[in-house]
Amino acid sequence: MSRAAKVGISLAAVAAVAALVVGGTLLITRHGTKHPAVAQSPVPTFTGTPSASPSPSPKPSPRPTATPADCSNAPHLCGFPDATNSGVPAKMRKKLLSVPGQVSSGPGWHYDPGGWVEVDGNGAVLKGLSIPYNVDVTASHVTIEDDVIVDTGDSFGVSIRHSHHVRVKDCDISSPYTDSRRLMVGVKDVYGDATGTKVIGNNIWHTATGVQTGAGLIAGNYIHSIGFKPGDHVNGITVNGSTRPLMIRHNTVFVNLGQTDAISLFEDFGVEANKLIKDNLVAGGGYSIYGGAKSGGPQSYNIRIIGNRFSRKYYSNGGQFGPAAYFDSGRGNVWSGNIWDGTKAMVFSP
C-alpha cells in the first residue's frame, strides 16, 4: 500500500474513538500529511507544573549512599532518574548534528522530505543527532541513542512498527509545548507486536503518554511535565493488554494531572499478564498505578508490583483518587514492599 493511502484516518474519527476508551492513549494518526496514519495496537503477545523544555544537566557521579526520606524533591539523591541523570549526556549534547541541515542520512536511515526520519535498515544506529521530527522505525536491531528528538501534535517521538530488538537509550524526547501542540507519545509500539524493545535512561516530557508498549524493558527513564489537550487520557507508561514479559523498573514518573496514571496496565485489548513493576518513584494521575485487572474482564496473572515509592508530590493520596486501583490478588499476582515516599509507611494493596 502506498504511503499516501495509509493516511486515511481523520483526526475527528480518532478523537471519537479516544473518547470511548478509558485510560489508554488510543489516538492513532499523525497530524497533517507528515506521516502515514497509525493503526491501533492489537493485543501484544510476555516471557509540579509543566515548563518550557527543560534541559538536562550533566550526569552525576555514582549514586549517593545516603537516601533522603522524601525522594520526589530531588530524585537523583535517592538514585532515581531526573533531569540530572537521564537523557542526552552533556558531553554528547555539544556534538549533536542537526537533521537534515548537517546530516540527512546514514546506514539504514534517511530523512524523508515529507517531514520524518525513516529507519528501514536492520542494525541501523542513530547516535548524536538533533532531530526535530518523528523517528519511524520499520527495521529490527536498531539503536537510537544520545539523540534529541522534538516533535509536536498527534505524533510520536519514536514509532516502532513490526520491529524487534529496538533500543531507545539516553535520548531527550519532547515537545516544546504543553497544550494541544504537545507530543502524543514519546515512544510507541504502534501495532503492539514488537519484541525485545528496550527504553532506557531517557528524559521524556510534554507528552500525553510517555511510553506505550506491551513487552520488553522500560528502565531508568524520567517521564514528567505531562502535556495535555482536551480529550487526552494521559499516561506515564501504559500497556493496553499483553501477556508477553515486560519489566518496568527504576523509573521516575510524575504525572502532574488528576488523570489517568503514572503507570498503567489496562485490559483494553486483552488480558494483562507477566508484568513486573518494581522500584519506581511515581506521583499523580487519577491513580498512580493501575494494576491490570478489569471488572468483568479476564483475570490478570503474574502481575508483580514490588518495592515502588508513591509520592504525595501532587495529591495527598498519591493520585487524585488514590495510589493504586484495579489490582487482583490471585494467579501469581503479588503486591509487596510498596511505600509512601517521605514516610516509608506501607501502601497496601487496592
Note poorly predicted spans: 1-66
Backbone CA Rg: 19 Å
The number of helices is 2
Q: Tell me the structural class.
A: mainly beta
Please count the beta strands (DSSP E, at least 2 residues each): 30
Please summarize the sheet with the most strands: 11 strands, mixed
Mean pLDDT: 85
Helix content: under 10%
- State the strand order across the main sheet: 2-3-4-7-10-13-16-19-22-25-28
Shape: globular
User: How much of the residues is beta strand, in percent?
Assistant: 25-35%
Distance between the termini: 47 Å
Explain what the structure shows:
The structure is a single chain. The chain has 350 residues and is mostly beta strands. The chain contains two helices and 30 strands. Strands 2-3-4-7-10-13-16-19-22-25-28 form an eleven-stranded mixed beta sheet, with no helix packed on it. The protein has a ten-stranded parallel beta sheet with strand order 1-6-9-12-15-18-21-24-27-30, with no helix packed on it. A nine-stranded parallel beta sheet has the order 5-8-11-14-17-20-23-26-29, with no helix packed on it. The longest helix has 10 residues, at 11-20. The protein is globular and about 55 Å long. The model is unreliable at 1-66 (pLDDT under 50).
